[in-house]
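In response to reviewer comment 3 from the previous cycle, which asked for concrete evidence that the modeling workflow produces usable outputs, we include below a single protein chain processed end to end. The sequence was submitted unchanged, and the resulting structure tokens are shown without manual editing.
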Amino acid sequence: MKTFLPKVDVQRRKWRVIDAQGAVLGRLAVQVADALRGKDKPTFTMHLDAGDFVVVVNAEKIVLTGKKETDKEYMTYSGWKGGEKYRTVSDVRRDHPERLVTHAVKGMLPKNRLGRQLITKLKVYTGPNHPHTAQTPAAMAYVG
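The workflow returned the following structure tokens.
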């Protein structure tokens, strides 16, 4: 018996939209990462990009549990000596709230070419509006 390998049809990819209002960041990121990879489909294959496009709206209204709002820090490094910068979650939420979701989802994807390709299918927006209405995205339910 041969191993079944699904053909990846780029035209068949669906668009999904999920509302992040009141959602816990980690739980939302797991569901988004699974949809990007296609793990929620019966034809999931580890080394293929068979997932859907995901649009996340209301990213500024995401919830973190415990003391993460003040204690969790994101580090960036410029490449120069002393070029480390640390920012708390409240700083990131104030300036670029969509980066909270993007960073959490990116950490749950593979660290290779496939992961870099998958993260391009994630679209995160602050507020309830997004420019992808022409793709008629289906509503994705947050289970949390």
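DSSP finds five helices and six strands in the chain. We consider this sufficient to address the reviewer's concern, and the full set will be provided in the supplementary archive.
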